Amino acid sequence: MSETTAATTVPYASPASRAGNPYVSEPQDYDAILLAGFGGPEGQDDVIPFLRNVTRGRGIPDERLEEVATHYRHFGGVSPINDQNRQLRAALEAEMRRRGMTHPVYWGNRNWDPYLEDVVREAAAAGHHRILAVATSAYSSYSSCRQYREDFARALESTGLQETVTIDKVRQFFDTPGFVEPFAEGLRTALAEVTAEGHDPEQIRVLFATHSIPSADALRSGPEELNLGEGGAYAAQHRAVAERIFSDLRADGADGAEATWELVYQSRSGSPSTPWLEPDVCDRIAELPAENVTAVLIVPLGFLSDHMEVLWDLDEEALEAAAEAGLRAIRTPTPGSHPRFVAGLVDLIEERIAARPPAQRPSLTELGPWYDVCRPGCCENARLGFKPAAAGCAP
Questions:
Q1: Which residues, at least 6 apart from 395, have a Cβ–Cβ distance to it below 8 Å?
Q2: Are the C-beta atoms of residues 37 and 107 closer than 8 Å to each other?
Q3: Do 150 and 190 share a domain, yes or no?
Q4: Same domain, 81 and 194
Q5: Which of 52, 176, 189, 263 has the maximum number of C-beta atoms within 10 A of its C-beta?
Q6: Angle formed by the axes of helices 339-354 and 81-98, to 10°?
Q7: Which residues contact 393 (CB under 8 A, 6 or more apart)?
Q8: Among candidates 310, 315, 273, 270, which has minimal Cα distance to 58?
Q9: Mind listing the pLDDT tens digit for each residue in 265-290?
Q10: CA distance linking residue 286 with residue 317, whole number of Å
């Protein structure tokens, strides 16, 4: 990664991050940690108001939202994401206390209670004015990085705290050992299971699944100067992690590691006329029997935990597609609150506090370690353009 200095300062940033260098070089203590999530409904009455929040500004009528609401209503109107973030927050606090770190850990959401605005206000009232955020998304794109940074800016501006509270954000952690190793562990177990059942590795297909995004947004993901081609940093990061997982399994002689893998997408929404990243996971599953595949392993590589897109789009729709195709199918685990994942997040917090040089930062692909401070023009929303954002250089 380049060590060039940005020509502009970073708004809403701590002194260590304000100059806009890709990697901070000045140690910075923080008053608090902020776990930033997407949010989800916690009862049937919450579902439509929640979906209105998710689609705010797009003018989508409630009758269309009700089509998506059926996924949540299938689970009693409760998204598992809030409970999963409560567990992750508790696990982060426990690991930090084990290391002697006393920072309070706040948790705030973009789309549901507890809202980020309320949490930032609460932190400031408690005297915590220098905040380090951990977003619950590992990759680079508008929805998985820049939108969280816009959330932070909006929370500071709407509460009037933009002059007294700063919010930095740990780097994208798609290729950190703590994130990657739980996926590799789950895939190793699944490969051993299907090979023990008699499936030849050449007849096993591993589908690394992630959320589809509009192709125009994907192209804009990551800094433009990296020139990562179609799919931008978003697709490149997923491919690099999948390749690393498989190369390690093969080097270790894991059962079934000769299987073929590919990257697939899920959960697309919006106008059918708008191009989104493909192929769709269910479409690929339907094609696999013609390719002499007898078993499919679905790895939810784009997801931290078993929230709705995993429980519905993979556990319901994709596994149903596999059953219809006559395929043996396993969906492997997400990191969730896996001890290695939790420890890896705390490693990122310690790394940022200490301002460790890039060479001392763990990364498992050639794309990392990713930047502390997002670069100018990074991850633009093709439809909305740039809005004010924290933790990155202004475009």
A1: 376, 377, 380, 386
A2: yes
A3: no
A4: no
A5: 176
A6: 60
A7: 6, 8, 9, 10, 20, 373, 374, 375, 376, 378
A8: 270
A9: 999 987 888 999 999 999 999 999 99
A10: 12
Does residue 190 share a domain with residue 137?
no
The residues, any chain, with a CB within 8 Å of residue 158's CB and separated by 6 or more, are 117
Residue 103 labelled as part of a binding site: no
What is the per-residue pLDDT for 227? 87
pLDDT at 272: 84
- Whether the ω angle into residue 114 lies within 30 degrees of 0, i.e. cis, is yes
pLDDT in the model for residue 8: 59
Query: What is the end-to-end Cα distance of the chain in Å, rounded?
Result: 19
Q: How many domains does the chain have?
A: 2
Same domain, 151 and 111: yes
Does 300 map to a domain? yes
Structure tokens at 193: 């299971």
Answer yes or no: do 280 and 139 share one domain. Answer: no
Cα angle at 74 between 88 and 207, to 5 degrees? 65
Known binder of ligand: residue 238?
Answer: no
26 is in an annotated binding site: no
380 is in an annotated binding site: no
**Ranges of residues in the chain whose predicted pLDDT is under 50:** 1-7
Would you say residue 317 lies in a domain?
Answer: yes
Q: What is the model's pTM?
A: 0.96
Answer whether 88's CB lies under 8 Å from 342's CB: yes
The pLDDT score that the predictor gives to residue 392 is 97
Q: What is the pLDDT of residue 2?
A: 40
Domain extent, residue 110, equals 32-173+338-360
Q: Are 295 and 282 in contact (CB under 8 A)?
A: no
Residues 344 and 284 grouped into a single domain = no
